[in-house]
Design goal:
Elements lengths: L4 E8 L2 E8 L15 H17 L6 H19 L6 H8 L7 H22 L8 H11 L38 H13 L8 H15 L6 H15 L11 H6 L1 H14 L2 H38 L6 H9 L5 E2 L1 H8 L3 H13 L4 E2 L9 E2 L1 H8 L3
Antiparallel strand pairs: 1-2, 3-5, 4-5
Helix pairs in contact: 1-11, 2-4, 4-5, 4-8, 6-7, 7-8, 7-11, 10-11, 11-15, 12-14, 13-14
Bound molecules: adenosine-5'-diphosphate and magnesium ion (MG).
Amino acid sequence: MRRTGTYATSTTSGETVQAFVPHALPPIEPVLSADCFEAANRVAELALARLASVAGLVPSVDWLLYSAVRKEALLTSQIEGTQATLVDLFDDEAGFAVGNSDDVEEVSNYLRAFRLVQDNLRDPAGLPISVRLLCNAHCLLLAGVRGSGKQPGELRRSQNWIGGTRPGNAAFVPPPAHRVADLLADVERFIHADSDLALPPLVKIALVHAQFETIHPFLDGNGRIGRLLIAALMEHWQLLPEPLLYLSGYLKQHQSAYYQALSAIRTQGDWEAWVGFFLEGVAAAASEAERGIVAIATLINNDRRRLLAAPKATPASYRLFENLPLMPRFTIEHARQKLNTTFPTANAAVKLLEALGIVCEQTGQKKNRSYSYQGYIELLTLVG
Ligand SMILES: Nc1ncnc2c1ncn2[C@@H]1O[C@H](COP(=O)(O)OP(=O)(O)O)[C@@H](O)[C@H]1O
Ligand SMILES: [Mg+2]
């Protein structure tokens, strides 16, 4: 059996435990054999290429990104127990009151952290993928009510554990705190090494994510930052021109297999099973995203045809329609601002789309009416 790390004696909460210290990447003795990933990697890369291509079905990729990045934000937070929904998030962004505002804040924080990382990677003067960038992202992720006591933006200074009620009966005790910085520096080196290793980028991403979770460098937020790192590496190695993949959907759906595969790296030296699981997940998530895009393109094109056939359509109603994928929940005032027009003009545009059955009113009231691009929201919230 391959050994993937060593144990170090560590004390926490008055108990002495064996903390796992992973070996630096890549796996050795034996090295990962191409037989175990070649076919699955080809399937996953093809699925990603199809996803990149299908985005051309709509006139603006922003239409698709709006929902894709929010789905990822939501699903990665749901893996960690957040109780928000996609509609909560849309409502929050539209300025409508939402009940579970702490949950929605967590999702919004993820979006901020994601944007920070993306902005840096796309700016020639920005930070590269690095411990510093991840700490900055962590700072945004844990800002506010729930995270503020968990040292936002800082590597942990104490021993932590996963599963179990106390360190002594934990499922897994990550490395001692004083090892965390060096272990992360190893990960950073692995990412930026111009390696002539025969490891394809998706396999390297699988290795990096698992290694990050094994190091568990923060007091909280390790799952979300580790999955953000997956998206960042997809960008870094140019596997997708835009973040259209929401892999957390697959990870959430197969959560116990996800955690088991991470554990088996440690307990059975089994890097191969994790890499296989990850590649399958990428392929499945990319195919699902592809189907979603086809459905969105179909819906929007059908709705557009109805609008084009409407004798009473106005310039403002066409312009409003083109904005719907970026503001699926809205008020007349939002429409007015977006179209930079008068209230009566915006009102007439909304009413026309309502009469065509493209948008519908939510409140049933005379005042403070709010509208929804319902067909679109239903597509986005379909499970699987
Ligand atoms: N057995 C395990 N071995 C390694 N990592 C694990 C294991 N079980 C769970 N994890 C990782 O730990 C994450 C949870 O860590 P946590 O710091 O609470 O992150 P977050 O606050 O984002 O929830 C999971 O999402 C998963 O990625
Ligand atoms: Mg947590």
